[in-house]
Amino acid sequence: MPIPTTGVGITLCLSPLVISSSMSRDRLLRRAIALSALSIVLSGILGVVAVAAGLASNRLSLLGFGFDAAIDSVASVVLL
């Protein structure tokens, strides 16, 4: 049950899940999966660019960042 609180002329509803009644659970799940997939793609692209830049400039920190982004992408794919 939400806990209503009042502030300076504003009423807030502190609830762990506040979902608009117009959005169904299936629609919300599809949106979450689409956003997760987009995040994976962007992280993968960022990782490839960072590794390429690290190899071109001989910067170990860029290589580490790129490989970290790749590992994060793989972990996200497993969870998705």
Give the SSE order as H and E letters.
EEHH
Number of strands: 2
Taken as a percent bin, the fraction of beta residues is 5-15%
Integer average pLDDT: 81
Portion in helices: 55-70%
Give a summary of the structure in a few sentences.
By secondary structure, this protein is mostly helical.
Overview of the molecule:
- The chain has 80 residues and is mainly α.
- The chain has a domain at 39-80.
- It has 2 helices and 2 strands, in the order ββαα.
- The protein has helices at residues 25-57, 60-79; strands spanning 3-6, 11-14.
- A two-stranded antiparallel ribbon has the order 1-2.
- β1 and β2 (11-14) form a beta hairpin.
- α1 (25-57) packs antiparallel against α2.
- The chain is elongated.
- The mean pLDDT is 81.
Write the topology of this structure.
Elements: E1 3-6, E2 11-14, H1 25-57, H2 60-79
Antiparallel strand pairs: 1-2
Helix pairs in contact: 1-2
